């Protein structure tokens, strides 16, 4: 079996395992490494010190797996249908959870599939060493995916695919097989700047450059401390992650839904009210979110995020009462600080009889968002 035949067989195996696309990348992606180094030098990584500390591993595949010669890159869709994007965007009392986090944690599922891909290659009688990665090591996954022909890195720094948008997970199999790399695809962003214009906090500070310190996904997931007050009103009702730059991307109008049951919503997270989630006890949080990627932020940051969303919600005596109750119950200084801010916002709106909640910029364009994915 020559290299071309083997590559075709690997892609067939990947499709059998449920991946939507598979490509081969070279180990040398130096242009991506240099761009990453520039990004780190500008301190855009915020609290994520590990992104600075492990730069060398990102440019040296051999340090992650000795004798790596090729990288097999795959993608897997994750949005179920109907996605209900427009539904939650239009209701400020509902919690917006990034769609990738509605179901079970993707890391284990993807790694298992990649390990099975390695075993299938071995079943051909081919001697292969491999190691699977799914957002679990210092790997420039979007760089490898771009070099493998799975798409191009767009202005929002996400990987975009002409026919599938960006609602998919990426994974890699480092191998010691000398495979022929795939051709890269053309960058089709053109003059479109929708992702930059519609970012709630202005985190996409320039084309292809994201300042994580302003990004709602970073603030709600990766950031441990107090969220800057200037950014809190801009977060709206987003309590875990943010999909806005993807929702307005024209290529996501062609996005395909997933049939992977593990990615379907659990515990009504696709339609839960803010007050409902704020009422969860710590035990309920950990019990209900077992197996969920949300669990990793812990109960304290969960309450911090929801408190901000409640402060941004339309004025409501029920919200004020819930915030006051939780303020007395919690022992966390971080949570208390954000509850106090939320109460101040609610009481200000109540006393002025003028709800000054910032409208979601996407509401007026919901009829264009992700098209058929929102349809039953």
TrEMBL record:
Top EC category: oxidoreductase
Which pathway is it part of? tRNA modification; tRNA-queuosine biosynthesis
**Binding residues annotated for [4Fe-4S] cluster 1, in chain numbering:** 189, 192, 195, 249
Which residues take part in binding [4Fe-4S] cluster 2? 199, 215, 242, 245
Superkingdom in the source lineage: Bacteria
Provide a Gene Ontology MF annotation, just one.
4 iron, 4 sulfur cluster binding
Q: Name one Pfam family in it.
A: QueG_DUF1730
- What are the required cofactors? cob(II)alamin; [4Fe-4S] cluster
Q: What's an example GO BP annotation here?
A: tRNA queuosine(34) biosynthetic process
Looking up NCBIfam families in the UniProt record yields: tRNA epoxyqueuosine(34) reductase QueG
Q: Which family does it belong to?
A: Belongs to the QueG family.
The entry describes its oligomerization and partners as: Monomer.
What function does the entry list?
Catalyzes the conversion of epoxyqueuosine (oQ) to queuosine (Q), which is a hypermodified base found in the wobble positions of tRNA(Asp), tRNA(Asn), tRNA(His) and tRNA(Tyr).
The name on file for this protein is Epoxyqueuosine reductase
Protein source organism: Pleionea litopenaei
Q: Which gene encodes it?
A: queG
């Amino acid at each position: 079996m020559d290299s071309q035949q083997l590559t075709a067989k690997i892609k067939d195996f990947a499709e059998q395992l449920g991946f939507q696309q598979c490509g081969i990348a070279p180990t040398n992606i130096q242009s991506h490494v240099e761009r990453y180094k520039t990004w780190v030098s500008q301190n855009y990584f915020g609290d994520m010190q590990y992104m600075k500390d492990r730069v060398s591993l990102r440019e040296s595949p051999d340090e992650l797996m000795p004798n790596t010669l090729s990288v097999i890159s795959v993608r897997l869709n994750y949005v179920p249908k109907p996605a209900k994007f427009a539904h939650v965007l239009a209701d400020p009392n509902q919690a917006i959870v990034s769609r990738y986090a509605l179901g079970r944690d993707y890391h284990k599922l993807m790694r298992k599939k990649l390990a099975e891909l390695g075993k299938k290659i071995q079943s051909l009688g081919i001697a292969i060493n491999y190691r699977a990665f799914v957002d679990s090591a210092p790997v420039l996954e979007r760089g490898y995916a771009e070099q493998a022909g799975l798409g191009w890195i767009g202005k929002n720094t996400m990987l975009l695919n002409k026919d599938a948008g960006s609602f998919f997970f990426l994974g890699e199999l480092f191998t010691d097989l000398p495979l022929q790399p795939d051709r890269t695809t053309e960058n089709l962003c053109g003059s479109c700047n929708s992702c930059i214009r519609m970012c709630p906090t202005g985190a996409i500070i320039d084309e292809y450059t994201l300042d994580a310190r302003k990004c709602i996904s970073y603030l709600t997931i990766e950031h441990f401390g107090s969220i800057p007050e200037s950014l809190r009103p801009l977060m709206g009702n987003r309590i875990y992650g943010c999909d806005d730059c993807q929702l307005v991307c024209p290529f996501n109008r062609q996005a395909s839904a997933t049939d992977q049951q593990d990615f379907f919503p659990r515990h009504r997270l696709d339609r839960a009210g803010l007050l409902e989630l704020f009422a969860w006890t710590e035990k309920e949080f950990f019990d209900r979110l077992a197996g969920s990627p949300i669990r990793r932020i812990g109960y304290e940051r969960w309450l911090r995020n929801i408190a901000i969303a409640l402060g941004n919600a339309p004025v409501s005596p029920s919200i004020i009462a819930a915030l006051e109750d939780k303020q007395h119950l919690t022992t966390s200084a971080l949570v208390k600080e954000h509850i106090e801010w939320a109460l101040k916002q609610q009481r200000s709106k109540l006393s002025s009889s003028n709800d000054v909640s910032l409208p979601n910029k996407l509401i007026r364009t919901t009829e264009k968002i992700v098209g058929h994915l929102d349809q039953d």
